[in-house]
Amino acid sequence: MGATHVTQQNFEGEVLKSSVPVLVDFWAEWCGPCKMIAPIVDELADELSDKLKVTKLNVDDAQEIAAKYNIMSIPTLLIFKGGEPVEQIVGAMSKDQLLEKINPQLS
């Protein structure tokens, strides 16, 4: 199944009002490193589905949201809890490195 695509229209409902933590992968079609981590993000979506909602937001289609959260380079992953960003991960990383940053936010 993988990550859910969010847009400017449904970002508030899917991410900010979620009752579980949400990982948002800020990406773009032209971004090579974004394509490298995409399969890892989809794996995390499937493996952590009971504890974490995993979404992808195309920065080219949602520039206002990217600007609001000061997304300067992609890929950037933000973890939201209770409508607020609590962790920021910048750049492509291995699955283990991502899990090290994600797991503390799941409790």
- The whole-angstrom Rg is 12 Å
State the helical fraction.
Answer: 25-40%
* Spatial gap, N to C terminus: 24 Å
Q: Beta-strand level of the residues, as a percent range? A: 25-35%
Order of helices and strands: EHEHEHEEH
Q: Quickly give the CATH architecture.
A: 3-Layer(aba) Sandwich
Q: Taking strands numbered 1, 2, ... along the chain, how are they ordered across the largest sheet?
A: 1-3-2-4-5
Output the CATH homologous superfamily. Answer: Glutaredoxin
Tell me the number of strands.
5
Could you tell me the CATH topology label. Answer: Glutaredoxin
Q: What is the averaged pLDDT score?
A: 96
The overall number of domains is 1
**Main β-sheet, in a few words?**
5 strands, mixed
Judging from the principal axes of the Cα atoms, what is the shape? Answer: globular
Number of helices: 4
What does this structure look like?
The protein has 107 residues and is of the alpha/beta class. It has one domain (4-105): Glutaredoxin, CATH 3.40.30. The chain has helices at residues 11-16, 32-47, 63-68, 95-102; strands at residues 4-6, 22-27, 53-58, 76-81, 84-90. It has a five-stranded mixed beta sheet. Strand 2 (22-27), helix 2 (32-47) and strand 3 (53-58) form a beta-alpha-beta unit. It is globular. The model has no long low-confidence stretch (mean pLDDT 96).
